[in-house]
Amino acid sequence: MAAKPILYGADWCKKTIAIQDYFKTHDLAYDYINVEQSDEAMQAIQDMNRSKVRFPMVVVGEQKPMKNPSPEELDAALAENQ
Predict the structure, then answer these.
(1) Which of 13, 47, 64, 77 could be 60's S-S partner, Cβ–Cβ 3.0 to 4.6 Å?
(2) What residue ranges define each of the domains in the chain, with the CATH number in brackets?
């Protein structure tokens, strides 16, 4: 079974909202973690970005985390995760 993608972002972030729309449009289940509501989530994105706060970040299975992925990058990552 394919791993559910994880989206790290913030509710006010237009790029986060665009990725949420992508998942909804493609009828894909995903986990959303608001980095502003969790110190652990904030630390996780810093760990993914050499101590810098950058989001949205998407993690698909065991693949390398993606910073602000395009729809094409999401398509490829999700296809690889099947």
Answers:
(1) 77
(2) 6-80 (3.40.30.10)
pTM: 0.91
The alpha-carbon radius of gyration of the chain (Å, integer) is: 12
**Mean pLDDT, rounded, for 13-31:** 96
Nearest to 49 by CA among 34, 62, 59: 59
CA nearest 77: which of 9, 63, 3? 63
Pair 35, 10: CB distance under 8 Å: yes
- Contact 42/35 with Cβ under 8 angstroms? yes
